[in-house]
Amino acid sequence: MQAALLEPETERLLGKRDGVSWDTVFERMRTETYHRYATIRCPSTALDEAEEKLDEIHDRLERAADATSWDWRAACSLIALGTLAVLVFGGPLALLVMLLVAAAVLFTLFRRGAAAWTHLTACLAAGALGIAWLVQRFEVGVCAVRWGEDLEAEGTGRVVPELVQHMLGDDPDSLFIPDDYDWGLRAPRAPGFVVENGARRQLERKLSHIEDGTIAVCGPRGAGKTTLLEQVVKKAGFGVIVQAPATYTPHDFLLSLSVRLCEKYMRDAGYEPPELTRLSPARKLLRRVKFQAKRLGRWSSFAVPAAALLVLGLSASARSLYAQYAASVADFVGTRVASIRGDVTDIWQGHAVVASITVAVIGIAWWKARHEDWLPRLLGRLLVRGSDFLGVLLCVVSVATVFLDGQIRGQILHLYRTQQEALIQTAAYAVGLALVWWLLRLTRDAGIKFSLGRWRISLEVWFRPLAAAAGMYLLVYLVDNPQTHVLLSDPENPLRLAGIVTGVLLSKAGGWSPRQEEPELVGQCRSHLYRLQTIQQSTHGLTTGGAAQVLSLGTNHTTSVSTIPPNYPELVEEFRDLLGRIAAEKVGQGKTVVIAIDEVDRLGTDSQALAFLREIKAILGVPLVHYLISVADDVGAAFVRRGLPHRDVTDSSLDDIIHVQPSTLKESRTILAKRSQRLKDPHIMLAHALSGGILRDLLRYGLQMREIQDKAQSFELTHISRHLVLEELAETFAGFRTLLSKQQGTREISDVLATFRILSDYLRDPCPCTQAEVVHTLEQFAFYSHGTRPVTPTADGEPSTATSQELTSDVRELIDEASTYAYFSLTLLDVFSTDRLEHRTQLAAGQGPDGDPERLADARRELGISPYSARPMIDTIRKAWSLPLGPATNNPAGPSPANCPRHNRTE
Q1: CA 583: distance to chain centroid?
Q2: Alpha carbons 95 and 87: distance in angstroms, whole number
Q3: Which residue in 211, 524, 702, 855 is a FRET match for 8, CA 20 to 30 A apart?
């Protein structure tokens, strides 16, 4: 039971509501009802059977003990100790003799029917039953442990959480107990929390069904258009995403897109884009020199000592080879050179006509082959294959000479005859060391990494020095051992080692190839970047002067050539050509090419966005390229009206459109559940209703609940929702007050501004003394509608004298928007700030679609369209939730609360 109470999901609920603590839950579980409720879930059949069998054996043991007057424990202990003593001190033979003597004695007692026989057999039977009882007692313990584990997992492990949920009362899921750190909410753009939705699947289907085209992605701000574009670009074979802020002109935008395209392609091809503006030429040169010096120093620190040691070790063998074969090689080379010189002289003097024609034809063919690729490839392939073959052959021959050397074979035979045991021991030890060294190297190269507490363990880091130490110890052992030292000291071994080293170098040389030439398209991207980002200038000077030093006449002629940055039409043509070539290459490799243009809706009005599309229309429609353009809803609506009398640029610029709709309540549950395990269904309903399903606001409200919980120091949804809704309402009223302050000042507007200021102050930091009064004032303002009723109540809750006819249409519209938003906020307060939310949700769902919590998010989105269409929708929602459709007839505020920490008032 303690283990069940210590479970994190259960322990975090203790102490969050009155009467739900460790002690109260523990006492409740000790009652007979919950004890039976927990044990009935885990039947103890095996334990009961084992206990019954234990009782049966115990009964038989007591009957056997009662059948004799001897103490069966003492008798059995004496027999066991005597047998053990004979076995220890006398050995197996003495034990056998003792058993034969004991059998003869027992047989004699049995034939005579002595009482000792009866007592002895009863003691032995009791002893056997005692051993059986011990074995069965152990079996009972094992069954008890197993039943305890089952009881902890299926019994108390399930009953205790259910009991805690029951003791919490109504709406236990409304408790918000946040973690110390929720990465999913604190990092909205974290890639690990992206949830698949219908818009992404639809967009991927469209991209797979068309070869190229322009697709608009439209939706409200914050609905996830940017995330959708980023995911599609990331999944594409080649993709570039650029932003289109309002300060970009079409020329600057295309310039930036061209630069991004070239840099992206060069990096994908393995080339770094040129650094054009980061450092001055002098600093670039110094940094390059510093890098090369550092690289050369590191290479020399290893290469020079290695070469010196290698030369020192192999110099004697090289000199002996040179002395032995130098004369023969010189004679052979001299003979061949003289023969070639004679042939060349005959051709030059015209004595070899056929050879002259052949040489001329070969020269013509060689010149013709300068543009062919097969000849360099053939020569390179012959070089690689020949070098590899010669290197391997030289290594094999060098190793084979060890087995063919008669002197080494004789030494091994002599060691085997004279020091056979030592030689076998040395070979076994050397093989063991080699095996250890090989296993350490395998472990080092396994690439295994794991966490041990707060430490990150890498096997490569730990086993690299161990493998090096094992290899060095093996080498030292082979050199220092007398048996192997005799074999290593053979005079021909340095020559063999030189052959192995030369063979390895030949194999490495065969695999070497010059640095690959930069592809043509990469060079074009590099040149394009230089042209777009630099001004290239060339100056030529010429000075002439007379011979005399005193009287001289000089002239200076300077010519300056500077490239002109491309204008917009030229830039469009170059961009389309470059992108077309890149797309042809990538599609040939089985990849898709996606160009995403995001944040077009930041350009301001829909007319500005359409004008921007009209300007960049020239770069659209590149073959094999998919364009994705993020636009606002109004631009998408213009495309949907295609074919109707009013045509615009979307008809010819866009091929299709994807609508990114706000998330439904089900999708919001999936999104927030993946980002935080502490947000339960009531909290998700509140965040969904406040955000209207807009992804950005949904995550913001999910994180803001953590802030409100810390501020209010309460875990109850009723308190958290009240603070959250009132805080959002205060900020909204402050915004409306700022908009109203820009209108022409009148007495009526001043009254409205004062009311907004007072409401904002009270709502932002409500005081218990005035909370009921503020709610009553908010009701009066929220239920305001057209007619001759007052515009808004004043600070004291009484209506002002200004009517709707005394205000301008702009002011009237702002006040209606604020009133409708207050009406929506009041509805959220009535829904979420009242107890028994789950029960009331079920009752509202029985009233039809208007009682669905999804309708609250629909009403929030409708507020962004028109307050006049949102208010009737809120009315239907309030009817389904059984909420009043008008303010209270009297002021329900009543007297001020007795407890008010702000004014030091206590009961």
Answers
A1: 30
A2: 6
A3: 702
The predicted structure's pLDDT at residue 38: 75
Which pTM was predicted?
A: 0.63
415's CB contacts (< 8 A; 6+ apart) are 423, 483, 486
pLDDT of residue 247: 64
pLDDT tens for residues 230-250? Answer: 888 888 889 898 887 666 677
Yes or no: say if 806 and 823 are a contact pair by the CB < 8 Å rule: no
With beta carbons less than 8 A apart as the criterion, state whether 182 and 593 touch: no
**Three-state secondary structure call for residue 13:** coil
Residue whose token pair is 């003495």:
94
Q: Degrees (nearest 5) of the Cα angle 486, 491, 495?
A: 125
What residues does 392 pair with on adjacent strands? none
Q: Are 41 and 35 in contact (CB under 8 A)?
A: no
CA distance 700 to 791: 33
Residue 873: its pLDDT value, please? 92
Residue 152 gets which letter from DSSP?
I
Pairing of strands 555-562, 537-544: antiparallel
Residue 8 pLDDT grade (very low, low, confident, very high; cuts 50, 70, 90): low
Q: DSSP class of residue 563?
A: P
Question: What is the average pLDDT across 693-718?
Answer: 83
Q: Does residue 40 carry a pLDDT above 70?
A: yes
How much is the pLDDT for 537? Answer: 57
CA distance 850 to 844: 8
Average pLDDT in the chain:
76
Contact partners, residue 51, CB within 8 Å, separation at least 6: 140
- The CA distance from 566 to 528, in Å, is 10
Report d(CA 557, CA 543) in Å as an integer: 7
| Gap between the Cα atoms of 185 and 193, Å rounded | 10
Q: Do residues 766 and 726 make contact, with C-beta atoms less than 8 angstroms apart?
A: yes
Q: Amino acid identity, residue 759?
A: L
Phi-psi region of 248 (alpha: psi -120 to 50; beta: other; left: phi over 0): beta
| Residue with tokens 């003593």, as numbered in its chain | 85
Domains and CATH numbers, the chain: 2-169 (no CATH), 198-271+567-659 (3.40.50.300), 281-371 (no CATH), 406-489 (no CATH), 725-896 (no CATH)
Tokens (6 digits) for 7: 């479970």
CA dihedral 169, 173, 176, 179 (to 10 degrees): 120
| Closest of 355, 358, 361 to residue 342, by C-alpha | 355
Residue 15, CB half-sphere, CA atoms under 13 Å: how many?
6
Contact indicator for 321, 497 with CB cutoff of 8 Å? no
In sequence order, the 6+-apart residues with CB closer than 8 A to the CB of 375 are 369
Q: Which of 511, 311, 528 is nearest to 392 (CA)?
A: 511
The stretches of 269-280 forming alpha helices (DSSP H) are: none
How far lies 582's CA from each of 260, 273, 385, 608, in Å?
A: 13, 16, 35, 31
Whose tokens are 């004695």? That residue is 105
In this predicted structure, the answer to whether residue 588 has a pLDDT above a threshold of 60 is yes
Cβ–Cβ under 8 Å, residues 710 and 182 = no
Under the banding of pLDDT at 50, 70 and 90, the label for residue 792 is very low
Tell me the C-alpha distance between 732 and 584, whole Å.
52
- Which pairs from 69-77 meet CB under 8 Å and 24+ separation? 69/119, 70/119, 70/120, 70/122, 70/123, 72/122, 72/123, 72/126, 72/127, 72/130, 73/130, 75/120, 75/123, 75/127, 76/123, 76/124, 76/126, 76/127, 76/130
DSSP 8-state assignment for residue 793: B
DSSP string, 577-593: HHHHHHHHHHHHTT--E
pLDDT tier, 900 (very low <50, low <70, confident <90, very high otherwise): low
